[in-house]
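Retro notes (design track)

What went well: tokenization of the new backbones is finally stable.
What didn't: we kept losing track of which sequence belonged to which structure.
Fix going forward: every design gets posted as structure first, then sequence, in one message. First example under the new rule, 252 residues:
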């Protein structure tokens, strides 16, 4: 049974932020990047985060992933409260309960595809579940390239490996920051389709920051941020609806 199912009660949110405020610095130079943000993500859903530049998207993702601590408020990842946690405990939470996918694939060039994915459970001190690893590589379409090195793969293929790596520890949430930013349109769409599939078939929860309305339209819902606040949430979005909302937020 997956760790997600054994350590959290069914029916709870994968991620819940309650009244999260994040202020950088103090006094005159302080910047409040998030203001009283409350939101819950149901398990097995795909959520996009959008907003104008400087609206707090990265700060939101960082607080949700335990990369940064809120100034006030609560962040529940499954049943684990991250606010107030010491750095060592946060490091363990990030390693065991969060999967990360970035614009740059960040694969280890000296390792094969399979070794890159297996590195995550190794670093967590878990036994590598070979059957799960092979299943994941198959699901992301890299089953026949397990012995290749990253330099022998296209950008889209490298991102598929990064997605398998993000999923291998069966994380509570996969956090993706502009995952298609470095890919051409067609390859980017295929990666977004893959996220949708993994959400649907594995019940994985995915949170993705993007600037692209078409990318956001692949999600079940879009959360809009403006000036550190939630400015709206759209379910079953179309790219045109997302574009229109963004235009109204002042994004050209
Ligand atoms: N470490 C930091 N120290 C000080 N201010 C910060 C820090 N990180 C972010 N900020 C400020 O917080 C606000 C929100 O930044 P954030 O990076 O979360 O926005 P964003 O929506 O991700 O922007 P972009 O789309 O340009 O990446 C901005 O005003 C930014 O300058």
């Amino acid at each position: 049974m997956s760790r997600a199912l054994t350590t959290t009660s069914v029916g709870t949110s994968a991620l819940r932020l309650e009244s999260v405020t994040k202020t950088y610095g103090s006094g005159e130079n302080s910047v409040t990047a998030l203001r009283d943000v409350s939101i819950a993500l149901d398990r097995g859903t795909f959520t996009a985060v959008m907003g104008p530049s400087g609206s707090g998207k990265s700060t939101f993702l960082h607080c949700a992933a335990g990369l940064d601590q809120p100034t006030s408020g609560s962040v529940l990842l499954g049943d684990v409260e991250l606010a107030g946690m010491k750095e060592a405990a946060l490091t363990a939470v990030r390693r065991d309960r969060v999967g990360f996918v970035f614009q740059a694939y960040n694969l280890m060039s000296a390792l094969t595809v399979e070794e890159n994915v297996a590195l995550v459970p190794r670093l967590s001190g878990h036994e590598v579940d070979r059957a799960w690893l092979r299943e994941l590589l198959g699901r992301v379409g890299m089953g026949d390239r397990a012995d290749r090195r990253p330099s022998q793969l296209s950008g889209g293929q490298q991102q598929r490996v990064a997605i398998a790596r993000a999923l291998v520890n069966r994380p509570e949430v996969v956090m993706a920051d502009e995952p298609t930013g470095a890919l051409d349109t067609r390859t980017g769409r295929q990666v977004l389709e893959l996220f949708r599939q993994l959400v649907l078939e594995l019940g994985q929860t995915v949170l993705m920051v993007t600037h692209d309305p078409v990318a956001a339209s692949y999600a079940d819902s879009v959360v809009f941020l403006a000036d550190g606040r939630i400015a709206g949430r759209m379910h079953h979005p179309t790219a045109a609806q997302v574009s229109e909302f963004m235009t109204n937020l002042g994004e050209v």
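Added context from the reviewer: Strands lie at 15-24, 31-41, 46-50, 72-77, 80-81, 98-101, 173-177, 206-209, 221-226, 229-235.
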